[in-house]
Write a structure and sequence with these properties.
The complex is a heterotrimer of chains A (about 350), B (about 325) and C (about 550).
Chain A (H helix, E strand, L loop, with lengths): L30 H8 L2 H22 L1 H4 L8 E2 L2 E2 L21 H37 L1 H16 L2 H13 L5 H32 L2 H8 L4 H13 L3 H21 L12 H13 L4 H28 L40
Chain B lengths: L5 H18 L3 H6 L5 H11 L5 H13 L13 H36 L4 H15 L2 H15 L11 H10 L6 H8 L2 H38 L2 H8 L4 H23 L1 H15 L4 H10 L3 H29 L1 H4 L1
Helix pairs in contact in B: 1-15, 5-6, 5-10, 5-13, 5-15, 6-10, 7-10, 7-13, 8-9, 8-10, 9-10, 10-12, 10-13, 11-12, 12-15, 13-14, 14-15
Chain C lengths: L6 E12 L2 E13 L4 E5 L6 H8 L7 E10 L5 E3 L5 H7 L4 E4 L3 H4 L6 H10 L6 H14 L5 H4 L9 H13 L5 E5 L7 H18 L2 E6 L2 H7 L2 E6 L2 E7 H6 L4 H9 L7 H9 L12 E10 L8 E11 L4 E5 L6 H8 L7 E6 L2 E2 L15 E4 L13 H11 L10 H10 L16 H12 L6 E5 L7 H18 L2 E6 L2 H7 L2 E6 L2 E7 H6 L4 H9 L5 H13 L1
Parallel strand pairs in C: 3-8, 3-9, 6-7, 7-8, 13-18, 13-19, 16-17, 17-18
Antiparallel strand pairs in C: 1-2, 1-4, 4-5, 9-10, 11-12, 11-14, 14-15, 19-20
Helix pairs in contact in C: 4-5, 5-7, 7-8, 8-20, 9-21, 11-17, 14-15, 14-16, 15-16, 16-17
The chains are: A mainly alpha (about 350), B mainly alpha (about 325), C alpha/beta (about 550).
Chain lengths: ~350, ~325, ~550
């Protein structure tokens, strides 16, 4: 086997593994920073692109009031009305909608709505899903079986349709900004809960079979202590990945709700899906700016989160992780041995994973 | 034995929809409240039986479903069953095209991405797949429409067939609901071309989304199968890399792919609802959004229940197929 | 010289890219393999033996980089340097000049294709073969490796074969193109000892009949003594010694080889110690209340969907007296681990009686077990999973103390934890490390510390050393014996390895398919076994001495 083909030049490799040179700066061990440092080449490109897109999304959402030139339901300035379906101009960079709103402003304010909905939906579904998954998976029995059946049924339910039904139930379909945000977020929550439930429960069931939980059981450790001290923290380690993927799904579901007319009233808040619904007729007559910009906003936000999620997923799996490769045989034998010198038993941790 | 779970699953779905739709009150008030006087409303409610105890209504609803009776719509006073049979074919047709597009694009490119993992082709394909996934299907539809219909004028803007074509079909007495079948029945190639040109953009919009999902699915499963020891074992006997991908790894990877692809049927239906709305493709999804606008919850309930049941049944069939592919289950 | 060898490895070096930077797994290895010879490469985990084996076939993962030369000679005399050859050339060599037998037969076979198809794939990869011809040759090679009814079995899927048969199929796949060299990577490690003996026999027969050279990768000195002609000992990526097998065992040169050979447990070593212990017991000791008394113990796993359950333990009666070590031996599926788990209250008892430390375990739940739990310790098999990865070693060892109220918090228990770590010969500072920062042997010591934290009367040890390298195992077993002598706890010691059990146990109980076939002192059970199965088990266990092993083989064949 000759030097393996590499895609482009690999980035220079640090001469020695970083963890052997002390612990390094504290910020290098922060969750995402650690992964960026760990990644190489294309994977790093994907992760960084995703992080930049997410950052732009969050900054836009938080700073909407300073970034947006006008309010989301503003129709006129003291100089006069904006006018409907105006093409992009110096006053209205992205043009105006059929209802006479400024497209740029609605795109910027829409980020705020999307962020709020995603935060509420993901937080709520994590709390409920993790709690149910933990208890159900740990204790098992008939209650667990029923919950699994219900979760599977809801999971198979077309998500947007379920969200629509819930939006009808919660708000009757139309409401104020906070009412609309909450209604949309809770509708999405119900769609997500089964996902978290399934993931956490599967992890709990797996961890319950691990020897360290048996070790706790042999001691007669109370269930509550086993669940909180041993099972819970070990079973939620994959959640950050699902959170990022779900956040993008949340944005898409919110947009779908808006597109079908179950979003938030245009006067209550800006919402990208609603704006796209209003733009369907515009497109037929060749008016492109009312559809393009809110659509791109959805794509970029959802794409940023998906990129981050997928990259984290790859990096978490040693089989999918790419490492920088050298063309020369390098490194010291058993350099990773954790206890060089102090105790000769190298035991089962050899330098190479290929060893049995 | 786990196949029997389909029965409680369908029961849970049907019940969930009923409970949710009734949590807001009776459908008559929802649809017509404000347009009729309170007396007229009460009269309609009584006539439809919505004033009776909820359990009685639930029982009636369940037995109705068993006999294929989903009630009558409020806004246009048609049996829901008739709505389903009239528009179901259109949705089925669109979904079929989309799945074809997804299979043709997603499977081979997923295999290539897995095979050329972490190299340029993989990176490009993955970014495209993520892009397909992150683009709402209605936005993709609008873009396709803008570029290929409005600006380039290659394809019609909306609908399933032009008026002329529809007249031809009616003359030929073709009313299967599947436009391609009906167009073939007229024997006129112009009609067939007309029908196909209407189908291109909606099929692409929905198919690209599904292809992105398939590509990712095939890639992930192929990569993990290519890493197994039996592939290394085949490699150690001199089997060609290409054949490792297309035979040795593909069959074992197919089992999880089939199972997960089956779960995506729900996503496909949601996509179909949005695509139909974008392209005025008169299928169940288009009707659903029309009924939603009209707040006709009897119709909504019927369509949603049928879609949910279709999803459950498809998942069940997919499990059966996956089991047939897997000799460990077969023997 | 070049004509008389099928493989020539010169100055081979391999490094891997890891998260922690490049790591060298093999360094400066040079070896030759002559036709028809069995070269054993022995070493412990991390020695580079498997990497060397994979390099011979060019099967290194993409993260690896190799230098040096591995020259293979085919039947036609063509020479190929595997390290520097193109992909297509490499592919032609694989299967034709060199083939591989894998460690785990259940993962080396593709689950969704018939074994006949998989054998034929190897044939088709090296030239056009008609379906009929491929099938004929598949049947033929299956017959060669001793699969009964090969005409029918050729159409079966891997899951329809037993573990030993699967390994025969894997060997058949390697054999079908008649390669000059077979690389066997731990070919018997995943198998039970009686099946191992059959596979070793098969490999020996194939070498004799076909003249194929075999590179045997193994960590088991008994297997080496049984099969090898020549031995290369690897340590940390280097070959430290290379010698003919008799020479190596009779007169090891390298320090490491001597340590390795000295660490191998041998049946009969512990008998004297056990006798000394028995002699020093006080009068009337045998009449005292036993810490474990199983009577007609039966444990059944319930079947799903009204299918009949699986009886893992069937009518077993045994006792363990205070301070006594009972060794429980059996192959996979014998029910030994199930008994251990039942004694610890992790597995419900179906019928019969099981009294542990005065508590009846049958039907006991929760509070009924509270009194017995602090008096029992448990050491698990897999050091990789027996610690919560998110807690430090000190926190894990303190857990029993905190749960049973001997300490208010892990921090308060630290004094006792340090004592325990010292008792198992781990530096105190290791308490602040996380489990993954310790080696397997160190983790197993920490596991012992946790098991002994409450000073238990009974310790249950479930294969505590089977995941460890032999030199590490020797030290852990020694520590175990010392602590047992010092603290005097009774012990149920479960293992598949007769020699390991013999080292520690006062009495030995042999299990076979859930039933107790024989029990008694080590001298009785191992010295003069009365049951067929025990005899077979003993005979199958290869001894780390080539001359002795050859004698045993002859007597086994004639018996």
């Amino acid at each position: 086997m000759t030097a393996p083909e590499t895609q482009g030049a690999p980035p220079p490799v640090p001469a020695a593994p970083e963890h052997l040179q002390g612990r390094g700066a504290w910020f290098k061990r922060l969750p995402v920073v650690h992964q960026v440092r760990q990644s190489v080449g294309l994977q790093r490109g994907m992760l960084v692109t995703g992080l930049v897109l997410c950052a732009v999304f969050v900054v836009t959402a938080v700073g909407a009031r300073w970034i947006a030139p006008y309010g989301w339901s503003q129709l006129r300035t003291p100089e006069g009305a904006f006018g409907a379906q105006q093409p992009p101009s110096a006053e209205h960079w992205f043009g105006t909608t059929v209802g006479g709103y400024d497209v740029l402003s609605r795109v910027v304010w829409g980020a705020q709505t999307a962020l709020l909905v995603v935060i509420v939906a993901v937080t709520a579904s994590i709390v409920v899903g993790v709690l149910l998954g933990l208890v159900s998976g740990y204790f098992g029995g008939w209650a667990d079986r029923v919950l699994v059946l219900v979760a599977d049924a809801v999971y198979a339910f077309p998500s947007l349709l379920l969200a629509i039904l819930l939006a009808i139930v919660i708000s009757g379909g139309q409401s104020s900004m906070w009412g609309g945000v909450l209604a949309a977020a809770l509708s999405i929550t119900v769609v997500f809960v089964p996902q978290y439930f399934r993931v956490v429960r599967a992890e709990v069931v797996r961890i319950k079979g691990e020897a360290f939980v048996d070790a706790a059981r042999v001691l007669g450790t109370p269930h509550r202590r086993i669940m909180t001290r041993h099972v819970l923290r070990n079973s939620v380690r994959t959640l950050p990945l699902i959170v990022t993927l779900n956040a993008s799904e949340g944005i898409l579901t919110l947009a779908g709700l808006g597109f079908l007319g179950f979003g938030i009233e245009p006067t209550a808040a800006a919402e990208w899906g609603y704006d796209l619904q209003r733009a369907v007729a515009d497109v037929t007559s060749g008016i492109w700016w009312t559809a393009l910009f809110p659509g791109l906003a959805i794509v970029l936000a959802a794409m940023g989160m998906t990129l981050v999620g997928e990259s984290l997923n790859d990096l978490a799996d040693p089989r999918l992780r790419v490492r920088s490769r050298s063309r020369k045989v390098a490194g010291a034998v058993a350099a990773t041995s954790v206890d060089a010198g102090s105790d000769a038993d190298a035991g089962t941790t050899g330098p190479s994973k290929e060893e049995s | 034995m786990r196949f029997l779970l389909i029965i409680p699953t369908v029961f849970i779905l049907v019940t969930t929809v009923f409970v949710l739709m009734r949590a807001t009150g009776d459908p008559i008030t929802a649809a017509l409240g404000g347009r009729l006087t309170p007396d007229q409303l009460a009269e309609r409610i009584q006539a439809a039986g919505y004033d009776r105890p909820i359990l009685v209504q639930y029982w009636e609803y369940l037995s109705g479903i068993l006999t294929g009776d989903f009630g009558t719509t409020i806004s246009d006073n048609r049996p829901v069953t008739e709505v389903l049979t009239t528009y179901g074919a259109a949705t089925l047709e669109l979904s079929t095209y989309a799945v074809l597009v997804a299979l043709v694009l997603g499977v081979p490119f997923g295999m290539i991405a897995a095979y050329r993992r972490d190299l340029l082709p993989d990176a490009v394909l993955r970014v495209l797949a993520i892009l397909a996934y992150a683009t709402p299907v209605f936005f993709a539809g609008l873009l396709l429409k803008l570029i290929f219909s409005v600006w380039l004028g290659w394809f019609p803007v909306a609908g399933r067939v032009s008026t002329a074509g529809e007249i031809e079909m009616r003359k030929a007495g073709a009313d299967s609901g599947f436009m391609v079948v009906d167009a073939l029945a007229t024997g006129d190639p112009a009609v067939l071309l007309d029908v196909l040109s209407h189908a291109v953009l909606p099929s692409l919009a929905l198919g690209l989304l599904t292809a992105g999902v398939f590509l990712r699915l095939v890639r992930t499963n192929m990569i993990s199968t290519l890493g197994t020891e039996f592939v290394v074992s085949a490699r150690s006997r001199g089997v060609k890399e290409r054949r490792l991908v297309t035979a040795h790894a593909w069959r074992p990877a197919l089992i999880p792919i089939i199972t997960v692809a089956g779960m995506q049927i729900a996503m496909l239906l949601v996509g179909a609802v949005l695509t139909e709305t974008t392209f005025e493709w008169r299928g169940l999804g288009f009707q659903l959004s029309e009924y939603l606008q009209a707040r006709d919850f009897v119709a909504v309930q019927g369509i949603v229940v049928v879609m949910a049941v279709i999803v459950a049944v498809t998942n069940f069939l997919v499990d059966v197929i996956a089991a047939l592919v897997d000799p460990r289950v077969r023997y | 010289m070049s004509t008389s060898r099928v493989a020539h490895i010169e100055d081979l070096a391999v490094s891997f890219a890891t998260d922690a930077g490049p790591v060298r797994a093999v360094d400066g290895v040079s070896l030759d393999v002559a036709p028809g010879e069995v070269l054993a490469i022995v070493g412990e985990s991390g020695s580079g033996k498997t990497v060397t084996a994979k390099t011979i076939l060019g099967l290194l993962p993409e993260t690896a980089t190799a230098s040096g030369a591995v020259v293979l000679s085919g039947h036609d005399g063509a020479q190929t340097d595997v390290v520097h050859v193109s992909g297509a050339e490499l592919r032609r060599v694989r299967g034709r000049d060199v083939a591989m037998v894998f460690q785990e037969p259940s993962t080396a076979l593709n689950p969704v294709y018939t074994v006949g198809w998989q054998i034929a794939e190897g044939l088709r990869a090296h030239g056009k073969v008609s379906a009929k011809e491929a099938r004929r040759r598949a049947v033929e090679v299956l017959r060669t490796v001793g699969i009964p009814d090969p005409e029918q079995r050729v159409d079966h899927y891997p899951h329809q074969f037993s573990g030993g048969q699967k390994q025969r199929v894997v060997i058949a796949m390697a054999l079908v193109l008649d390669p000059g060299l077979i690389v066997a990577d731990e070919p018997t490690t995943a198998l039970d000892v009686t099946v191992q003996a059959e596979i070793l026999d098969l490999l020996r027969r194939l070498r004799d009949e076909t003249g194929t050279a075999i590179v045997l990768i193994t960590h088991n000195m008994g297997v080496v003594a049984d099969l090898a002609d020549r031995v290369a000992v690897m340590y940390q990526g280097h070959v430290v010694e290379e010698a003919p097998v008799q020479e190596l065992f009779a007169d090891p040169q390298a320090e490491y080889t001597r340590t390795l050979l000295g660490a191998v447990p041998r049946v009969g070593e512990g008998t004297a110690r056990a006798e000394a212990r028995a002699a020093s017991r006080p009068e009337g000791w045998a009449d005292g209340e036993p810490v474990v008394r199983a009577e007609h113990l039966t444990i059944t796993y319930p079947g799903r969907f009204r299918r009949p359950g699986f009886t893992a333990v069937d009518d077993v009666s045994l006792t363990i007296r205070p301070g006594e070590v009972l060794g429980l031996v059996g192959e996979s599926g014998s029910g030994k681990t199930t008994i251990a788990r039942a004694v610890a209250g992790l597995q419900p008892v179906t019928s019969g009686s099981l009294r542990v430390l005065g508590t009846e375990m049958r039907g006991a739940r929760g509070r009924a077990l509270a009194g017995m739990r602090p008096r029992l310790g448990f050491v698990f098999q897999d050091p990789a999973t027996s610690f919560n990865p998110l807690l430090t070693i000190a926190e894990c060892v303190a857990e029993p103390l905190v749960v049973h109220g001997r300490a208010a918090s892990p921090a308060a228990a630290r004094g006792r934890v340090d004592e325990l770590l010292e008792a198992v010969q781990l530096p105190r500072s290791y308490g602040d490390r996380y489990p993954h920062e310790l080696s397997g042997g160190q983790r197993q010591r920490a596991s012992l510390a946790r098991g002994l934290a409450l000073d238990p009367e009974l310790l249950v040890a479930d294969e505590p050393t089977s995941a460890l390298d032999v030199s590490v195992q020797a030290r852990v077993l020694e520590l175990f014996a010392d602590l047992q002598a010092e603290l005097g706890f009774a012990c149920l010691f479960v293992s598949h390895d007769l020699a390991v059990v013999d080292l520690l146990a006062d009495r030995i109980a042999v299990l076979y398919r859930g039933r107790l076939v024989e029990s008694g002192t080590g001298a009785e059970v191992l010295g003069s076994p009365s049951e067929d199965y025990t005899r077979r088990l003993l005979a199958s266990l290869p001894v780390p001495d080539p001359a002795e092993q050859a004698r045993r083989r002859v007597s086994l064949a004639t018996a």
